[in-house]
């Protein structure tokens, strides 16, 4: 009886799927990633976000996203599980304020959008940040390791925002947001943010971003100005740029940095990309330590799978990153090799 | 036993339905993929011209009227979304851009879709699927071994889309409802009276 029921259900399911293709389906997508990293000084020197475990086949995360659009309304819910999506992301959804229990999952996106017209829409909830070039999901980045700009900037912003498209070339977003990376804002909705998007020529888009506010417990008001832009110069060559300046009022910290991302696609399946970054901390008392980093990555794609072999060299003149040699003596430079596999579905 | 037979029958229907759609487009003299059709009708060129223009101007942003060449040729550009589907779940994996052209004569018209180029989508920071580049890859290009399976699927979906669009276009062109020419706004001249 069970077999009959199973076969009938399966057969009906298969045939319904043929006829259901015209219906607007629930979008399910996501990714899985894993990596191996080897630091040539035999220690985990480079401490930018994710992929930090030395000489180990380690886990990234499994990321699951749901999206549904009904008329003008849509929602997105995206959760991730695994080191990249739990303890290494901020915040961990399961951290209990009283017990301090850790690690269940991280909410990447959880928001509702309503498009009042083709030009005007509003969104409320918890969203990936609009600041910066790189993102948490490895599917959205060319390089597997992340930049200092990404690591030190916001990951996500909860809030409410309105976006208006003046034309195909210019649009503006403005919103009210919680503190960085916080599901709940304990000092009220404390940040304002805006993003001006311009697309002056085909293939070139620039985002001018602004976010300012006083986070709970912070020494001052933090304000970040950010330029994120990418230009598809030819069908094979793409150039990206990210520049940001973050200052906390009263000289209470921040950073300034710039990163350049030239990428060349030899074929639709094989591309090579460089990231060159200069990053400087605005630290009170200490004389603004800086770090330079060069990362060379390849993307080799086969269907949903992307292999990312990568080498990275960081130079820290001011010893701000605490790089050490294999004998634990301080050093100014660090280098690493990594091989990551990212599967997107 | 009956249930097993029913299951096999329904499953084979599914396989047949899929197999019927797995056809790619033919290529033209330049080696470009093309959907080409000549249709004979008992309608004068003037009416056909109005119908083509009306059809193109009524389409949403997925097929945009671009220009006319002379008095009888019409050019539009279009976009179709390629979906990665698994049973009832799916998400867009890219878009195919194309050119649509139509020409009319007394008693017949022809139309074709060509210059297909694929733009892959990637998921952005808000988990929306967006174009990863602005420069499309011609669908005729050899994708290499690594992406051969997916590329074949793009071609199959493109062929299916072209066939559907052709059916809709031909249905509109053969419509018996009166076709009204697009009227220009009337101006009142008050100088002379």
From TrEMBL, chain A:
It holds the Pfam family BBP2. Coiled coil: none annotated. Keywords: Signal. The keyword Ribonucleoprotein does not apply. Residues 1-20 form the signal peptide. It comes from the Bacteria. InterPro entries: BBP2 (IPR011486), Porin_dom_sf (IPR023614). This is Porin. It comes from Pedobacter polaris. The lineage of its organism: Bacteria, Pseudomonadati, Bacteroidota, Sphingobacteriia, Sphingobacteriales.
UniProtKB/TrEMBL annotation, chain B:
The keyword Signal applies. Coiled coil: none annotated. The keyword Signal applies. Gene3D superfamilies: 3.30.530.80. Pfam families: DUF4468. Keywords: Signal. Residues 1-19 form the signal peptide. Residues 52-118 form the DUF4468 domain. This is DUF4468 domain-containing protein. The lineage of its organism: Bacteria, Pseudomonadati, Bacteroidota, Sphingobacteriia, Sphingobacteriales.
